[in-house]
Predict the 3D structure of the following.
Amino acid sequence: AVILEQLLRRCRGGFPEPVFAPQPDRVAIVMGGTDGIGYSTARHLARLGMHVIIAGNNDSKAEEAVRELKEETLNVKVEFLYCDLASMASIWQFVQKFKMKKIPLHVLVNNAGVMMVPQRKTRDGFEEHFGLNYLGHFLLTNLLLDTLRESGSPGHNARVVTVSSATHYVAELNMDDLQSSACYSPHGAYAQSKRALVLFTYHLQGLLAAAGSHVTANVVDPGVVDTDLYRHLFWGTRLMKKLLGWLLFKTPDEGAQTSVYAAVTPELEGVGGRYLYNETEIRSLPITYDQKLQQQLWSKSCEMTGILDVTLRYPASG
Ligand SMILES: NC(=O)c1ccc[n+]([C@@H]2O[C@H](COP(=O)([O-])OP(=O)(O)OC[C@H]3O[C@@H](n4cnc5c(N)ncnc54)[C@H](O)[C@@H]3O)[C@@H](O)[C@H]2O)c1
């Protein structure tokens, strides 16, 4: 359905790039900014004059990405900081290195991800989709919340932008088996991690609002985008993508538009808890609005990552 909709839209003129005002005094972290949608997101933010920190675990690609972005955007404030989201120790180290810079943080884009990888585990023993796509971003965001809070101000909120997917609509979130150990399906595990990200965003927004923070959290769905994310799919599907991707899929730049929109548009100033698709708010799956489920997942995630459950201090307001 998404691919058909994208094809129709392409026939009607495509995905015109939105124009935003320069953002020279703002700092952004784009997790997974060396490739695909993340790279395009970083490029757009750098073009707006932001100080962009590309984070990721691909050292070799990072050097090239930073050089290209600096050359193309003429923005010298583009840099790379290593972070392996599949390792909690690496996330802690990344946050420590970032905080040592003593700079603010206005935009955090939780973009990195893997899809349909064979059953394997992160350094900390979590199923890879759940551990990297979801728990990695959960921990990262929580460790950066104090800096985001200090950086946001009335009328200039700091923003957390989390990249989910339409697969969250068909996912099952098994609270008794978040590691998919009883029955592993690569698609099911990916979709579960993407549903968890939607629940996380809504709960985070509730906590931020309850605490009166000048930080907002929104979740975006980039559509179906022609990137290397599909590298673990069946060869026939990859061949189809190679032949028809240019027509049916969004380009990475088009896929990044909703993330960039969520990161900078004045329309979303002070607005959080939204699921955004094609720069428009739409409804996510009804169960994702279930506050009890959001709370359960949040508490469990705190346990798994070993951080304090701040929910106890600030009950989410909705
Ligand atoms: N491509 C699509 O059609 C599509 C659709 C819906 C959602 N998404 C989501 O968009 C996001 C970006 O994906 P993409 O399509 O650009 O894919 P991609 O494979 O091109 O990019 C993924 C990024 O994540 C990074 N990454 C992977 N493992 C990491 C780790 N251990 N630590 C840190 N970074 C790591 C990679 O280095 C890369 O920069 C993902 O969250 C994905 O789930 C993509």
Observations:
- Residues 32, 34-38, 56-58, 83-86, 111-115, 132, 163, 165, 222, 224-225, 227-229 surround nicotinamide-adenine-dinucleotide (CB under 6 Å).
- Residues 2-308 form a domain with the Rossmann fold fold (CATH 3.40.50.720).
- The mean pLDDT is 94.
